[in-house]
Design goal:
11 strands; seven-stranded mixed β-sheet; single chain
Length: 118
């Protein structure tokens, strides 16, 4: 599966953004999907994940209560709704389709930059 993330941009603290990740291929609905992010000078970190059916979601503590992951299998798209954004949310955000042995063996999108000004 190939992934294309979009929706990043420059916003102010407290604003909201919705990231989208469109997938090509017919196996999208079979994959758990995740969002990761990488801030300048830092390692890539987990943000959120959603099961193949959408029935289960998981969040990093740093975004819990502010971010919501969802998916539309009919549209082959996964979303990340980000509310109450903080400057520390500034990062390149990547979507990923889980691979056979986890995220490391999955398919990664190209990333979309989110910049939150204070």
């Amino acid at each position: 599966v190939q992934l294309q993330a979009s929706g990043g941009g420059l916003v102010q603290a407290g604003d909201s953004l919705r990231l989208s990740c469109a997938a090509s291929g017919r196996t999208f609905s079979r994959h758990a999907m995740g969002w990761f992010r990488q801030a300048p000078g830092k390692e890539r970190e987990f943000v959120a994940a959603i099961s193949w059916s959408g029935g289960s979601t998981y969040y990093a503590d740093s975004v819990k209560g502010r971010f919501t992951i969802s998916r539309d299998n009919a549209k082959n798209t996964v979303y990340l709704q980000m509310n109450s954004l903080k400057p520390e949310d500034t990062a390149v955000y990547y979507c990923v389709a889980e691979g056979p042995t986890g995220w490391g063996t999955g398919s990664w999108g190209q990333g979309t930059l989110v910049t939150v000004s204070s």
